[in-house]
Write a structure and sequence with these properties.
heterodimer; A: alpha/beta; Rossmann fold; five-stranded parallel sheet; four-stranded mixed sheet; 22% strand; B: alpha/beta; six-stranded parallel sheet; 25 helices; 53% helix; globular; binds iron/sulfur cluster
Chain lengths: 193, 458
């Protein structure tokens, strides 16, 4: 008997009672001012969210928020201040040392300031390896909770990798002192456009 | 008469300042959890849903495993099965050998501790790098985790400073956590870039999509799976959940319960292999299917490893993770240890005051305290001395040996009068189920006596 059969057999032998599938109808919290909630909670998780200024271009906003970024990675046509397109690079090692990456978020979640994204770059590591990350997120794409969020996450998707990101990489492993920038970006800003 | 736990706790308590810090810090984490969970009106509904989903999935695993395998395979991943720890180790070693891997970078996985993966691989000549900061500190110190979420909670910054000075060449005498964290970031960045393979555990495995979900704050699992071409994620059969709708429930509960955050920084779905690379999943039993056949204990397989039961446990907070003989400490560890090897781990069963706080915070509604009570009734079978057992069944041995704790427990009692009824009389509180709790006096006798005694003296 191979190990899969062994495990399945053992499960069938041992499980005596079959519990029904629960109906998951949770009447969940609703935020009336979604933008305000999302911006507040972004700060609370150590990140930042702001609305693109009146008459401001995305390039202007990038320059304003990250004045010191010199190596900027982006493959989006609407961003012209990028210094290189990471899709033209073969290995994560060459991406190391990037100051800022700009990527697209699909929707945001008000209860926890997380943003759902699907891998749109060739190199998965660009989402984690840069010092700072800017997410472009349409401001009408905010949902209340993870229930609404996972309603919108498709079962089938063409990409390699996807997930949620909420604020910068962090750790409190030394004496519970909170430190930003454990392995991923030290600074994460969501630009609501 | 002492149990193995209380003997080991003495060593922890001998450093009074450290022991006090440990207690206070974990209580702070517990308080954060309270704040976050109380802000969600539907919290109890979520816990109920989590329990029901786990009971459903754990009793339908044969079907869900097939579904996961079908979808993961369609995504281009390899699915392996390990019936026990030995097979888990050999599958991983074989994958590494087949790809001529020399260096493996790992993110935190309790399963790899359970199955003693690192010593096995190191003995075979592989370089194994733990990338979670806490785990890395412990690996460099050659020590074990003392908590499942905050593995290095017992290590002070000065020790980390010295360690990094020696191993990573950091500044002499600098023990600032920010500085040290960034030193580790710099060193581990190189490890991520020059390793040959990456490995993670899994928080959830979603049958309907064939994805493994990894939740971290550091992003170390993500660096691993995105810098290496060869990736392995291994998880116990109990991590399998039906679908994304269920995943929503768990993502709302996990970080709030664990660290008092609304969600972890990263909730990563590992779906397809990297272009030109391979993604392997290993599904592990190692005794879990047998536990599912034990009606009194099968709920322990609902665990999502949030650590909330440790943070709230008055005995864990005051005795530290190393006082327990099983590698998972606290209420869930007492139970899992007994399920794993009761002869070896029965000494932990005394580390419980039966306050049932664990059962009331557990996001998956595991009846942790009640299960510990069940184990106590069976202690004779496992050869615990009977006089010891008598003490233990009173449930107060640990507190009795520490009068200052006992006093604070009594001082807390009047607070119960102010707690909302649903907290006291929810279905899990075995003492609240069939009868009203006695009303505690508004003021404890001890503080009344002190106050009156003092005012008389004045
Ligand atoms: S038993 Fe419950 S509280 Fe304890 S770690 Fe598991 S899920 Fe968390």
């Amino acid at each position: 008997m191979n190990s899969k059969d062994f495990i399945i057999h053992s499960l069938r032998e041992n499980i005596k009672e079959h519990f029904p599938r629960p109906e998951l109808k949770i009447s969940h919290i609703v935020y009336h001012d979604k933008l305000k909630q999302f911006i507040e909670i972004s700060a609370a998780v150590g990140g930042r969210a702001e609305i693109l200024g009146e008459g401001e271009t995305i390039d202007n906003a990038i320059r304003r928020i990250f004045p010191d970024a010199s190596r900027i990675a982006c493959n989006l046509p609407e961003v012209t201040c990028a210094t290189y397109n990471p899709d033209h690079i073969e290995t994560p090692t060459e991406l190391n040392g990037t100051d800022l990456v700009i990527c697209r978020g699909i929707f945001g979640v008000c209860e926890n300031a997380s943003v759902y994204f699907e891998q749109e770059y060739l190199q998965r590591s660009i989402y984690f390896i840069s010092e700072s990350l800017l997410m472009l997120l349409p401001k009408d794409q905010l949902v209340d909770t993870m229930h609404d969020a996972y309603q919108r996450v498709p079962n089938e998707h063409p990409g390699e990798f996807r997930g949620f990101m909420s604020g910068p990489s962090k750790t409190a492993d030394i004496e519970q002192a909170l430190v930003m920038g454990a392995h991923g970006p030290r600074q994460v800003t969501v630009l609501l456009i | 008469m002492s149990t193995t736990h209380s003997k080991a706790a003495k060593a922890f308590l001998s450093d009074k300042a450290n022991a006090k810090w440990h207690d206070k810090t974990l209580y702070m984490v517990r308080t954060k959890r309270d704040r976050l969970s109380h802000a969600i009106p539907e919290w109890e509904e979520l816990r109920n849903a989590a329990q029901n989903i786990k009971q459903y999935s754990n009793s339908h695993l044969p079907e869900l495993i097939e579904e996961f395998e079908k979808n993961a395979t369609a995504n281009g991943c390899y699915v392996h099965y390990a019936k026990d720890a030995e097979e888990y180790r050999t599958i991983i070693e074989r994958i590494l050998r087949d790809h001529s891997v020399r260096k493996l970078v790992k993110s935190k996985s309790m399963l790899s501790e359970e199955c003693h993966l690192n010593p096995y691989l190191i003995e075979k000549g592989y370089e194994v790098i733990e990338s979670d900061l806490g785990e890395r500190i412990l690996q460099l110190l050659n020590a074990n985790p003392s908590h499942i979420v905050m593995p290095a909670i017992h290590i002070k910054r000065e020790i980390v400073g010295k360690l990094f000075e020696e191993k990573l060449g950091s500044e002499k005498g600098n023990s600032d956590p920010t500085y040290l964290t960034h030193q580790a970031r710099k060193a581990l960045r190189q490890d991520f870039l020059n390793a040959d393979a990456g490995m993670t555990g899994g928080n959830f495995a979603v049958a309907s999509t064939g994805e493994v979900i990894v939740c971290t704050n550091e992003g170390n699992a993500d660096m691993g799976i995105s810098c290496q071409k060869l990736n392995i994620s291994a998880f116990g059969i109990d991590k399998i959940i039906p679908d994304l709708e269920s995943l929503a429930i768990f993502t709302r509960l996990l970080a709030r319960s664990a660290t008092g955050q609304p969600i972890t920084t990263y909730t990563s779905h590992i779906g397809r292999p990297r272009k030109g690379g391979e993604q392997h999943f290993i599904i592990v039993d190692n005794g879990r299917s047998k536990i599912l056949g034990m009606p009194q204990h099968r709920k322990s397989m609902n665990c999502i490893r949030c650590g909330a039961c440790m943070n709230t446990c008055p005995v864990y907070r005051r005795s530290g993770g190393y006082s327990y003989s099983y590698f998972i400490p606290g209420p869930i560890g007492i139970n899992l240890g007994m399920l794993h090897n009761p002869q070896k781990h029965s000494g932990n069963v005394s580390a419980c005051s039966l306050c049932l706080s664990c059962s009331n915070v557990c996001p998956a509604m595991i009846d942790l305290g009640e299960q510990i009570y069940v184990w106590r009734q069976k202690l004779d079978v496992f050869g615990q001395a009977s006089s010891e057992k008598k003490l233990m069944s009173k449930g107060l041995q640990f507190l009795m040996e520490r009068p200052y704790l006992f006093h604070s427990a009594l001082k807390m009692a009047p607070i119960i009068n102010k707690m909302p009824r649903f907290l006291l009389y929810n279905r899990l509180n075995a003492w609240g189920k069939d009868r009203e709790l006695p009303q505690f006096a508004k003021q404890s006798f001890e503080s009344w006596w002190k106050k009156n005694h003092q005012s008389k003296n004045n």
